[in-house]
Amino acid sequence: MRLVHLFKAAALVLAATTLQPVLAQNWPTKPIRWIVPYTPGGITDNATRMVVQKIQEQTGWTIVVDNKPGANSILGADLAAKAPADGHTFVTVIGAHAANATLYAGRLPYDPVKSFAPVSLVGIAPLVMTVNNQLPVKNVKELIDYAKANPGKLAFGSSGVGAAAHLTQELFKQVAGIDMVHVPYKGTAPALADLMGGNIQILTDTASALMPHVRGGKVKGMTVFSSQRVPGAAEVPTIAESGGPAIEGSTWVLFLTQAAAPKDIVRRMSAETTKALNSPDIKAKFEALGIITGDTSPEFAAKFLDEEIVKWSKVISAAGVKAE
Fold it and tell me: The pTM is what?
């Protein structure tokens, strides 16, 4: 009887190992749904659509982008996590996905890591810090000195609690040893309006959102939270060049699918993503948006996500940030 059980177990293992190649060979069998947990038009949506369009051109697949904003990306991520693990549903996540692991610890309807299979880290967009024209500082060193001389009097805006820009400013506060007040907004546009109007003094966001206003003289570009200057904001110094602490903060774009999705399908999509990112037109568009590409393998994407969760967990805990 034991031998029979062993044969049955071996048969199950064989079936499991041979099923995935069969699935991948016949995949996709229907249009691929690509969930973006944000509204159309932002950097997450734009970057996803650029890459997905290129993948369609390369393969002939039909991919439908489905914007599902809500609850700091939780709604869209949950839809993706609970979709059939047949390789026909993918999701784009950004820094909020890593922050949510701590902000909503024990309350998420999915596990930010275990519910998903990383596909590719599409790109990283280092964040730019700007100040209004009335603030009497020319660089980060002067900003830190001013903040220390005026504790609690500077206000920085962000696109919302737990956003990459918010947490990067909290990290900046912690490392620089300064006290500033956070003012969360429902998106970047109203925060930018208040920055230019003098209601807040500091705003950090993507190069694509802020650099047109820096170049137009409406706000001052202080620094980019990166060890190197970035495309899309090449005239803005790094934080170390500007006399500040050598810290980094970015938003990023990462592709995921369900944890149980066939591994060869995950690798195929990762390979097509890499091919798309290496095309000259996508490279040029990403540079204009201030997005840097690098290692796009599933293994690197998994490592990167794990590190981001740990990094921002420490910042959230130290700052006492609470979800809205």
Answer: 0.89
